[in-house]
Here is the input.
Amino acid sequence: MRSGTLQPRGAVLRLAVPAGVLAAVAGAFAYVGSVDPYEPGHYPVCPLLRFTGVYCPGCGGLRSAHAFVHGDLTAALQANAPAVLAYLGFAVLWTVWVIRAARGRPLRIDLGPVHLWTLGTLLLVFTVVRNLPFGGWLIP
Here is the structure.
């Protein structure tokens, strides 16, 4: 074949990993969507919350995913707003990954130190505020 033409077998192989990741994430969301995290005993309690009483940035993530799967965006945002942003970010990133893989290009995520420090700082502020008396509206 000429250089630059799309080879079907190669495209299928390049899309195998993104398809596998999508299958794993879809399976996890299907499980969380079918097993209610509001009922005790289905999922372990957050160790940080259990031993210190402090909510971590992930607390409420399962409830958020459960509500998200059931189409209740308001409840999902109330349970854990950063988790909903992460779900949407994953969807965008996965779509870009599939497009680049289909074209034979690698996925490049050019996050520099500023981006990572900003993300870490936002999660830290979210964690601190949700554990302060005036941040009760962020508690799952």
